[in-house]
Amino acid sequence: MSCIEDVYETILDRRDHPVEKSYTAYLFEQGIDKILKKVGEESAETIIAAKNGENEDTIGEIADLTYHLLVMMAQQGITPADVEEVLRSRHTKAGNLKDFKSVDKNS
Q1: Which of the four pLDDT bands, split at 50, 70 and 90, describes residue 101?
Q2: Which of 7, 9, 67, 96 has its Cα between 20 and 30 A from that of 76?
Q3: Is 19 left (phi over 0), alpha (psi -120 to 50) or beta?
Q4: What is the DSSP secondary-structure string of 5-16?
Q5: Looking at the domain covering 3-105, what would its CATH class be?
Q6: How far apart are CA 81 and CA 84, in angstroms?
Q7: SS3 83
Q8: Domain locations in the chain?
């Protein structure tokens, strides 16, 4: 089992068996709006750290973002295996640069 899977399993356990003073249980108690707000905040903090070239800070922010994404995934019933499957299918696909360029123009 990978570290991501271990963290995800702990998140599921906190969701299903809340522990007093658990930040994860608190997020689930607050609901999807709070969880998504944290995903947004951590995304912005990751972008700023990367822009500033602070690798140590960027790594910490990526870890925070990953954790909050895993909480969101658990709330939505999405597993790391679901994401891994999509990544694996994209990784083996070649010649899709044209598709990405058209998406980039709209963002």
Answers
A1: low
A2: 96
A3: beta
A4: HHHHHHHHHHHH
A5: mainly alpha
A6: 5
A7: helix
A8: 3-105
